[in-house]
Design goal:
The chain has helices at residues 15-26, 48-58, 76-79, 85-94, 128-137, 157-164, 203-210, 251-267, 295-311, 328-338; strands at residues 4-7, 31-34, 39-44, 67-69, 80-81, 99-105, 119-123, 141-142, 170-173, 184-187, 194-197, 214-215, 243-248, 272-276, 287-290, 316-320, 341-344. It is α/β, with parallel strands linked by helices and 345 residues long.
């Protein structure tokens, strides 16, 4: 299969190009497109055969649920049932935007889209290209991240091409995504809202709007036998080819541990990269990347940096942990999911 790239202006999307991509989706094909978080791989969410192509193209386990993307908040009325009043409050505040809500699914949603679950994950993206694509397609889009399963999520069109060339027909190139990590997922299908995946909307922001929000046990390092209602919960995700070692603790101890590991791996003739949040990090390595000092920049650069290390054939990435306040909770979730080894000093 030949993969074509269609460049669309992210600020003033050309409607003729959007309609071309929307037509492909209506015909049961896959289209990768930008959102404000990462690039998504879209298909008709209500067509089981089209959704099946997503799992095949990504090499994604069939029990890993997909998120349905909509362009009109009223679409939840036919995608979900038993919708609680809290859903209206939370979507009024955060939609369109990087928030996914989980509700009881309606009969119209195929079980392949929900990973066999009786719940459905829905979000309304803010990105102009994504909004227009869904609107012109006239159908909700099932859209996980547009990467091969387990790889770092794509924040640029070329990342999609690196992973899925020859596996999908069309990629919309709408430039670099803004947020850089996936949407926050909150489960509203029970009595109390449960945070399933931290992301672009912070836990603190959610609690200001809805009050009590429970953090799922898997997010604080505990095992759980509960049903995994969100992508990013059950399987290892976001991993580059290089092995990530995540070091958490005080700045002085973390830096000392990085130097110790760096010297050890050099003796083993390993190519070592350092991913740091400090501008003037003194230790020398085969490759060093300062990915930002504030959480917004770190999130925007995280997956892109993973891929840069891979492009230089780095064997080991030594990564500093950061504060889990605000967006930091989502960043650390991605780092821990991607890590081959975690060290606390």
């Amino acid at each position: 299969m030949q993969t074509k790239t269609l460049r669309i202006n992210p600020k003033k999307p050309e409607l003729s190009k959007i309609r071309k991509a929307a037509k492909a989706i209506r015909h049961g094909k896959l289209v990768a497109f930008p959102t404000e978080t990462v690039y998504g791989l879209g298909a008709n969410a209500l067509d089981p055969m089209a959704v099946k192509k997503i799992f095949e193209a990504k090499g994604r386990p069939s029990d890993n649920p997909l998120i349905i993307h909509i362009s009109d908040r009223n679409d939840i009325l036919f995608l979900a049932r038993n919708i609680p009043p809290i859903a209206g409050r939370i979507t009024q505040k955060f939609w369109p935007g990087p928030l996914t809500i989980v509700l009881k699914k309606s009969k119209i949603v195929p079980k392949i889209t929900t990973g066999g679950l009786d719940t459905v994950a829905i979000r309304m993206p803010k990105n102009k290209i994504a909004q227009l694509l869904i609107k012109e397609a006239g159908i909700p889009l099932a859209a996980p991240s547009a990467n091969f399963a387990g790889r770092p999520s794509p924040t640029m069109a070329r990342h999609v091409l690196d992973d899925l060339e020859g596996r999908i027909g069309l990629i919309i190139d709408g430039g670099k995504t803004m947020i850089g990590i996936e949407s926050t997922v909150v489960d509203l299908s029970g009595k109390t809202p449960v945070l399933l995946r931290p992301g672009g909307v912070t836990l603190e922001q959610l609690r200001k709007v809805v009050g009590r929000v429970v953090v799922h046990s898997t997010l604080i390092g505990k095992r759980s036998s509960s049903i995994h209602r969100s992508p990013g919960m059950k399987y290892r995700h976001y991993s580059p080819n290089a092995k990530i070692i995540l070091i958490e603790g005080t700045k002085k101890k973390v830096n000392a541990k990085i130097l110790e590991l760096l010297n050890s791996f050099k003796r083993q003739r390993k190519k070592v990269g350092i991913m740091t949040m400090e501008k003037n990090f003194r230790h020398k390595a085969d490759m060093k990347r300062h990915i930002g000092t504030d959480h917004e920049k770190i999130a925007a650069n995280l997956f892109k940096t993973f891929r840069e290390f891979d492009s230089k054939k780095i064997d080991i990435i030594l990564a500093q942990g950061i504060s889990e306040e605000g967006l930091g909770f989502g960043i650390m979730n991605r780092l821990r999911k991607a890590a081959h080894k975690k060290i606390r000093v």
